[in-house]
Amino acid sequence: MNDRERRRRRKRNQRFKVFTLSLFCIFAIICFFSFIFLVKIKYKDSAIAAKKDFTENMKIQDLGTESESGNDIIQTEETLSEVLNVEKEYERILSLSPGVCAFQGYLPEETAGRLFYEGDITQELPRIQGISYQENPHVALTDLAYLRMLYYGLDGNTYVGEMIVNQKIKEDVLHIFRELYENRYPIERMVLVDEYAGEDEASMEANNTSAFNYRTIAGSDKLSNHSYGMAVDLNPKYNPYVKQVNGSSICQPESSGAYADRTKEFDYKIDEYDLAYQLFTQAGFTWGGSWNSVKDYQHFEKE
User: Fold this and answer.
1) Overall domain count for the chain
2) Among 111, 102, 161, 164, which residue's Cα sits nearest to residue 133?
3) Could you list the residue range(s) of the whole structural domain that residue 179 is in?
4) Among 23, 69, 168, 240, which lies 20 to 30 A Cα-Cα from 269?
């Protein structure tokens, strides 16, 4: 093989190598750009999917927020309506007269609590002047407090009650009768004795729970503690005043003879196990049922 032939073959080999390298480079470039293209497409798809998920999540959150806001609005409206109803019921009962049924059953605590309070006794003066209250040197009108309270009737309903007591015991009385009401302690009636023309016997016959009445103790010239508003009589018909005379029992009210024997069991009986007894004595009151010479089972007083 001559030199000329060898040079030709060498050039041909070089051209083949260049061609092969060029093809490889072109293939590498095509692969590189294909890879870049695929990455871009995948990234774009991921971005679109992420954006879609984000948008859907935002919509869900917006719907949830709207739902929560709607629920909050509904709850607020319901709460406001409930408050307005309580206030309306409170105002209605405030306008009722004593002795009137205020509510069928037991009144909810949020309303009942505010209905135990001291009113303006000067507004009651036209009702009591010359009856339970008389001008005297012992007790002034300013010494007395007019109380408005609720009581749980014998029929299981709520009634409006009233009572006049001495300023010294008004807080005790308000607390005691609120406790009695909350424990559904039955009381038949609670109005001023002026509704019975100041007649103690008539008030007791009606089983009326009362306090102030400017009067003397029956059969004496001594003023009763009721004259100072320092005594309360509770359910007097079932818890009478009993005095023994020549071996016989004299009761006040007169129709209460069946309840003079305290060894018997009957409804509305006040004894040492009774809630009213416990509340009054805990507050420092003396019970007439513990007296020796006479028994006044309806009577609680404080010196």
Assistant:
1) 1
2) 164
3) 101-301
4) 168
